[in-house]
Amino acid sequence: MRLKIALTLGLLVLASAVILPNIGAAPKAASQSGPPLQAVTSPNGLTAWLVSDQSLPIITIEMAWRGGSVTDPAGKLGLTYLLTTLLNEGAGDLDSQSFQRAMADNAISLGFKSSRDDITGTLRCLSKFKQTCFKLLKLALSDPRFDDDAVARMKNDHHARFRRRLQNPQALASQQFFASAFAGHPYANNPLGSIDSVQALTRADLQAQFDRHIARDNMHLAVVGDIEADELAPLMDEIFGALPATSQLPDIAHVTPAVEPVSDHIARDGPQTTVIFGFQGVGYDDPNYWPARILTNGLGGGSLSSILGDEVRNKRGLAYGVSTQLVNLRYANLWIGYVASDNKTAQQAMDVIQQEIDKFTDFGGRLRYWATGRNLLTTARTYLTGSYALNFDSGQKIANQLIGVQLLGFPVTYFETRNQQIEAVTWRQTMGVAKTLLDQSLRISSVGGTAIALPSQRP
Amino acid sequence: MAQANDATPELAIETASLANGMDIIVIPDRRSQVVTHIVWYRVGAIDDPRGKSGLAHFFEHLMFRGTEKIGKGEFSGMVTKLGGQLNASTSNDFTNYFERIAIDKLPEMMRMEADRMQNLIINPELVALERDVILEERSMRVDGNPESLLREKMLAQLHKDGAYHAPIIGWRAEIEQYNAADVKAFYQRYYAPDNAILMVVGNTSMAEIKPLAETYYGPLKAAQKPRTQIADVTDLKVEGFATPIVHADPRTRQKLWRRIYRLPAYHTISDKAEMAALDVASHILGGGSTSRLHQSLVIDTTLSTSPSTYALNQRLHEGEFHISVGLNPQADFAAVASRVDAAIAELATTAPQAAELERAKTQLIADALFARDSQYYMAFIFGSAAVNGISPEDVQAWTGLVENVSPADVQRAVARFLLPQHSLTGHLINRGQD
User: Fold this and answer.
1) Chain A / chain B CB contacts < 8 angstroms
2) Chain B: residue nearest A267 by CA?
3) In this predicted complex, what is the ipTM?
4) What is the pLDDT of residues B265-295, one digit of tens each?
5) For chain B, what is the total number of helices (H) and then of strands (E)?
6) Interface test with B, best of A9, A54, A418 (most B CBs within 10 A)
7) pLDDT above 70 coverage of chain A, percent
8) Sheet holding B34-41, edge to edge
9) Domain spanning A35-240: which superfamily?
10) For residue B426, is pLDDT > 60?
């Protein structure tokens, strides 16, 4: 049965183009009551994180390879994206249609995606079809065909997606923000490249990127569902054992977003202006990460009760969606915000946001915030710990968590220690981080009818 | 035969009612200590007063503004502080409010949800503020999105003066006319226990839930003002069906062809197997890369990259069947239309191959099982059916109906439901194209 179309309250409307998976950790409730997490090692030394759970006859395998569209060679932008769309389009003796039919006949879902930093794959199958399921995965990863007709079709598919994104103001604003903040670094590039760059790619380009990228040393595996460790261990070697031992990806430099404030604008018809704004963020490995996360969540987490939700939406009716978040890429860290407001009120909305940010950094504002701000930040902290369990209430979500934490390079114990780290954060730490983090000048990217003025350009 | 669900026993779903008329549905999910708590109301965009389209959705927003007990805007903060997530949604036929939270917080969620069912603060200031928020939502979802504008135009003509003609979010000029008196009347009529269904999904049972529901929802008074009965549509003919609606928008970068068919209301179909056959037909036509439309429009020609189909066949008074096809730049609309028409005609007159029938069944039945991985999907599937009078048993019987669909059933469903005179076609173009 299909889900019906419905409008939602839109609490979590965020700039999807810049969002990474929300990596949380396992709540106490989940780790105490749920099935245990095991690290499984194969006879040949591959490792996977497994949550074995027989309550549904479903097996989910999440795969990830470090290195995403940020590794696209110069002049071949969009290559990693195109590669991922072709990994279920024919392999071995199965051409595209035969491969797709084999998946459909056995209700197998196998798909690959790329982000700026990683390639990820998801395999989901019913237990009764698992043998076919694993065979198809092995075939897809060991002998992709890249047939001319499939490549031509996926290029057309890319072009359609590229054109649709040009209709999406959030996507336009995000890409403009990245292009400006990271000028000169691969993060400035559109992960989709362009229609021309993708059209020019060849079968040889795809094969070369596949050979460089899909290897064992940059791979992570997470498995959830109806499978036990003793069945999984040899299976890992069977499926992934023949991949090259080492990937051959370019070194990517760490980068900080350009610091000088700018306001870039793309004029677009319509009643509303969409704005992405931000500056340098805080890395996961930084001791200030959790204080910064609590602060950012309290300021503009995806809830009506955040400071910006209250000031911009509830009190003034200036926007439907307003939010802030930390965006952690492998080679850069951003603090990013989003708002969309009528062309007549977009500037006012941004002024309100700037005022709320300033309250954390100027002396008088900090005094005023001591009481109310403290309350809001306490809420953010209890939300971050209390809601962690919600990331573990389905097999697919658990698999996403297991792969996400591995991609961050954290140990299995992260799921136990994460909430302790958050609970240890003090109010003083959070306000200390606020003073420096929020004291940066915003870079602004807008799409719509109103170019946003920087504070320095305001009367 | 398709047997994807043979290893899966029926879900032991429990139902009950309170003395004040509130229905209760409990869906077991033993895997975690997270619970999903949803209240469904039998009110949606079809109940919007004349000239006030979008009021049901607007009202959904107001439910977060506060009551005497729960301060201004604090509902969301209270749930957040308890580590919960919440949201709400409004559809043509229903409105729902949900929280996902640790199971020990369930009584508190019931207390809060029961409180706002009858104690909401409504005044002109709040109405004015939220009206601005809704206009921003409309700008984001519709006015800034050429595909949404085409869809809105098509539905307005497809359903003409019927219950489903106005957008769920409402027409801009009508949103601007909302006032506190309309809102209060709407609230008093529809927000009452006898117009609501309480649903809980999680590691619990009716034996635990019913006493809690008695405590929190039991004292609420029935309104005894059920929604106005709208006559079911019997004549599905669409005026001007042969002439496509064209939406020319300078922001369009990707041309789109869309076809929407009107379907009879679910409850007027005496043999539900016909609807199951339509779901199977939809899958054969447009279900992914092995479908007939994919073969015709993507592989045999290069007119499109990703045709898709879906059926809204459980709606209260009439349903819809959608086909959408994004066009490659050189493709023309007439070629797409004639290929889609040919594919439909072929399926109406010629039996599908055994292999493609089995493939469709296997996938549909597997999807029903995969949905069990998510509390929210389960809640949505059973809840959106229940508000329209479709019982959990009927929903669970659906996979059995799908398994029994014969090739002739598929032909009959296509021939019966996908009639050109019941449909409307739309073209999304850039200004001056085509």
Assistant:
1) 259
2) B251
3) 0.94
4) 999 999 999 999 999 999 999 999 999 999 9
5) 15, 11
6) A9
7) 89
8) A7-8, B85-90, B95-102, B34-41, B196-202, B23-28, B14-17
9) Metalloenzyme, LuxS/M16 peptidase-like (3.30.830.10)
10) yes
